[in-house]
Amino acid sequence: MQCLSPSVRALPPALMVKPRLFRQLLLTLLALLLIGTCGYAGYRLSEASGIQTLTGNGERQLELNARAVESEINRYTYLPSLLELESAVSRLLLTPASQHRQRLNDYLEGLNRRSGSLATYVLDLDGRVVASSNWNQADSYLGEDLSFRAYFQDAVRGRPGRFYGIGSTTGEPGYYLAHGLRGNGRVIGVAVVKVRLDALEKRWADARVEAYVSDENGIIILASDPARRLKAVHPLDDATRERLARSLQYHWAALEELQPLARRELGHGLEEVRLLAADGQPRDYLRQSRPLADSPWHLTLLTPLAEQRRAASSHAMLAAVACALLLLLALALNQRRKVIATRLAAREALERANSELERKIAERTADLQASNTRLQDEVRERQQTEATLRQAQDGLVQAGKLAVIGQMSTSIAHELNQPLAALRTLSANAARFLERGALDTAGSNLQAIGELVDRMGRITASLRAFARRSDDRGQASLEQAVDAALFLLHSRIEQERPSLQRQFAEARLAIDQTRLEQILVNLISNALDALREQPRRELWLSGAVEGDSYQLEVRDSGAGIAPDVRAHLFEPFFTTKPGEKGLGLGLTLSASLAAAAGGSLAVRHPEEGGSAFILSLPTLREGNHRHD
Fold first, then answer.
1. Each residue's pLDDT tens digit, 479-528
2. Which candidate, 596, 570, 571, places its Cα nearest to that of 389?
3. pTM of whole model > 0.70?
4. Domain Histidine kinase, which positions (predicted)?
5. What is the pLDDT of residues 581-619, one digit of tens each?
6. Which of 200, 415, 552, 579 has its CA 20 to 30 A from that of 256?
7. How deeply is 196 buried, as exposed, middle or buried, from its count of CB atoms within 10 A (0-12, 13-18, 19+)?
8. Which CATH number does the domain housing residue 98 bear?
9. What CATH number has the domain bearing residue 536?
10. Whether 301 contacts 64, CB under 8 Å
């Protein structure tokens, strides 16, 4: 397992996330770069393959169109030499006469009509037209001096005359074929046939082939796009322009240069150019050229690259998509490999954890069994301890009762001694009155004796009820408990003579009657002790229901509790009384009895002096009687 270095572990989590994000961003950029590279490579490969295909197709089409141009030109090459066989031609050239001229004009008109040429005419050695097929037209060539034409000059010298130009008379472009006519072993004149080549342009336009033919001067004489006709395919210097202007070969055309908007050499006579199309929009073409046979002309084929570019773009897109799919597949395979590795590692870790868990479960089971045994032993010990504690608590409660009875022994003896003394006196007097026969007086004495005996019985009954054992649970009457406690403490109340104020509502409380009386005896007894030697002796018993409990407050106007002993009030065997006056168990037992019944005993220290103990016990029902 790989662990982080201390310096890395010390980094905050926010800083540890940044390298991961940076790595993910870098991988994303690399993937995009790879996809873009694949798309670019696909585009270039498709473009190269497409250009190669277009080149092969273009060469075949160039060859076919070149043969068509050569065939169109060669179909008229025999006509000028054919006139050499006509006797009317040599007769007119050797002996010019009007009748000979008219006969030749008629012949040339018929020949021109049958051959489909533009015009057929004959020139003498001075370059003047002596007969023409258009003799009867307004723009007839008769009498025209054409000695400046190159085809005439070549034919006079015995060479075939080939010339493209625009007629100086009609302004109509055409291809001129000239042949020197011989007679008597010498050249006596020149026969010229002017043919039309625009049929080629029409066929190109119908076939949607973009091509043009340039002559020996680099001027486009035939073009599928009329806008390119009579434009130079290469720059012309001033001397050439002046020479062409004097020759009137192209009439008064400006001979502008066909300047590509962009060009790129591809080698082997191939060139990529950008030209304005017929619709005025720039388009890219593959330009291929070849010379025509038996002619200084060149045929140029323009193959549009738009379809090839779209195909290359599609192939580039496919290559990019394929690369992206491969990357996604690789990512998925890598992720799957990680998932499988993670699952295998998790399975191994789970098996190890399962084995470890089984071992720990076995150990834990043994520990739990031992702990269960110990807990059972502790439960038994605690149950025994609780029983012992309960017995001890009951003993302490009983001891507290006996301690209270012991403290009240003097008062009890005083309470019993008075009736006993009265009994002796009354009994002796009753005997005397019986001897004297005073039966009424003796009867009243005997009645008083009975009342004294009843009083002594109530005292002993209260002591016996107070001293008997009781349970935690039960129900008690608050008023009855207060009366019983005050009756038990009657002698002390007679001694201290406090101002007693009772302000509480009768209630049924969830506590044993005897235990409630014991708590009240302890609290009132402590209050009477606090009032001893006090000039103002007041005792308040007040209470009210608060929710589900009853709050009874026993407050005195004594000197109060010193701050240094307040924290020890409820500690066992803690007392501020002399040794023979108390054991220090009264408040402890009272608090314990209140807690056992689900209540509490608390103390507060009023600002006006004295102490106030608050007894809180749950109620059974709410009383509606009030004592003042």
1. 988 988 888 788 788 887 888 889 988 889 988 888 888 888 888 988 88
2. 596
3. no
4. 411-621
5. 555 667 887 888 888 888 899 999 898 888 899 999 999
6. 200
7. middle
8. 3.30.450.20
9. 3.30.565.10
10. no
